[in-house]
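Hello Y.,

Per our agreement to keep a running log of every chain we model this quarter, I'm adding this entry. I've kept the format consistent with earlier entries: sequence first, then predicted structure.
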Amino acid sequence: MLTKRIIPCLDIKDGRTVKGTNFVALKDAGDPVELARIYSEQGADELVFLDITATSDKRKTLISLVERIARVINIPFTVGGGISRVEDVKNLLRAGADKVSVNSAAVYRPELINELAGKFGNQCIVLAIDANLVDNHWKVFTHGGRKETEKELFAWAKEGQERGAGEILFTAMTRDGTKDGFEMDANKILAQSLRIPVIASGGAGNMQHFSDVFLHTRVDATLAASVFHYKEIEIKKLKLKLKKDGIAIRI
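Predicted structure for the entry above:
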């Protein structure tokens, strides 16, 4: 049986880790290099780094910061933010990333997924989808949640899979930073309808929330930020709780 994964997320703005609620009201959450080192030591299964203003600021991901983080961790490392061409991925992999996360650029030019998967392999490409409920429909948003698009969550996730994405990272904007628990219904539909792994993001507030989404949906991993950054949940204790609840997890 494949073990479930616990993935801390570093949302980066101006070289610092930040966290907000529903993608706004961002607050400083610490030094990303130090947080990365702590999470690696605590037993996180992977680490995600998202340069959340790279697209809206029309610039590339902070390569030097990626390099510094890669040097202090020994777990798989996914990097996203401002990726729009093959050269961007080459630079990030050279800097120490194991996988890349694409979002806005892929929405506006879906062929990017085919190009990157063809060049680097499906296992290297994570399609990140930020979606919000609009008139009871999960609409896809880009530019760090700032721009609504015509794309619908489930159709876009399936298209991403067919184009070569190796994983889907779904962030429910309705839950982001609220600590009310993961979005159950949408994660359940995604995990049941896709062949590739689904990472649930948005809403983690306590350890039970992690158990609930693993027990009641087929998601392969959970991603969280503030509960780890502010030391509300320790990864080692979380994993012991999940194991006690009968969830296959790497201790």
